[in-house]
Amino acid sequence: MTWLREWIYSLIIASVIAALAKEITPPGGVKRVTEFLCGVMLTGVMLMPVVRADWDAFSLGLADYRDTLESVTESVEEQENRLLRVYIEQEINAYVLQETSLLDISGAQVTTRLKWRDESWIPYEVTVAAEMTDEQWKRLGAYLESELGIPPERQHRGE
Length: 159
Prior knowledge:
This protein is α+β, with helices and mostly antiparallel strands. Helix content is about 70%, strand content about 15%.
């Protein structure tokens, strides 16, 4: 920030010099030339940060900023993806538990495994741990296949 302070001091000094020069210059053509030269001087002082800028450092800083932004964006997308996966697993588990309750299966515990396909999480495999009859398991299996698209070979019955 020292460059900012130096630039402000330069502007102040240039403004004071310009004001003094315009005050002590006699009216007429000389005064107009003095005002023009003071304007050129103030413009030059105002543009000094642009002229003196370290464009290589600016370019490197901008590239570093882009890399950081890309990294943060990827991190946020990964976290969002994980949260979405957990949310979908919980919703499917609740959905299956609701069906077990409708089939009079009590104390069921459901574990769902998802798979990433076509830019979304889909139910891939499910394990239902509960005491149930073969008929209840058959009806639950049909439900899992028709509603969630989980084929019988990826439906597991736990105890």
